[in-house]
Amino acid sequence: MSVEGLDPAARPYSEEWYEALKRSLGEIGCRRLGCYVIPDDWLLSVVIPIYNEERTLRVLIDRVRAVPIRKELVLVEDCSRDGTRSVLKKLEAEAAANPDPMNSISVTYQPVNQGKGAAVRVGFSKARGDVIIIQDADLEYNPSEYPRLLRPIIEGHADVVYGSRFLGDQERRVLYYWHSLGNGVLTMVSNFMTNLNLTDMETCYKVFTRSALADIGPTLKQNRFGIEPELTAKIARRRLRVYEMSISYHGRTYKEGKHINWRDGLKALWCIGRYWCAD
Q1: Between 176 and 268, whose confidence is greater?
Q2: I want to staple 200 with a disulfide (CB 3.0 to 4.6 A). Which of 74, 160, 164, 279 is the partner?
């Protein structure tokens, strides 16, 4: 963005960057464009569970790195059967040879395949940031939307933010009707049990303050995609402040590598009931 009076060296989301934009666009304009201040000492942890993502992993990591926020990338490799591990080894070597103060990288290699939930739990245990976000290793979700998702937390309104694929004002690839219907049913049943009014319980993009996750993280049990309803139930049980923000969604087909199936939907229903009853 080129704005008169903006120092080209000013870091995006710094105080100087925001003040220059505000002089040109006004406070309302800045708010509409998602321009605000992120403290210099603030750290975002991006937890990335990885399984058989050789084709997309490097592109995804580059997109995460490009977000102009200080981050740590917490990668958890879930015993992939393709060339994912070799990609990660190269990324580790590159990061060691050329340290980036805006993007530190840590990699954990699971000894056996356990599932997304297990990888997320490991990532949560290793995250050091002020705020933690879950990022899938495919290209279905766009990391450039992190700043919009973080704003309710940084402004003090939210403890948790969900990125919703179904709020309607962002582009979304048209794919499987039955998947969409299944997502709607799972979200509706979860809302009925938790008394939340989410539009997308199953979304990957869940963002937590460190204090919120410190309470929830040690109690998590699910190893596969049941982690989504489990997290939602435990967020509701603790009466945390939850916001939703719209996100784009570039879904993929099974041929392109989609992992979730109908069995995971049935397990999600079981998890909704299970964690409605007790932690």
Answers
A1: 268
A2: 164
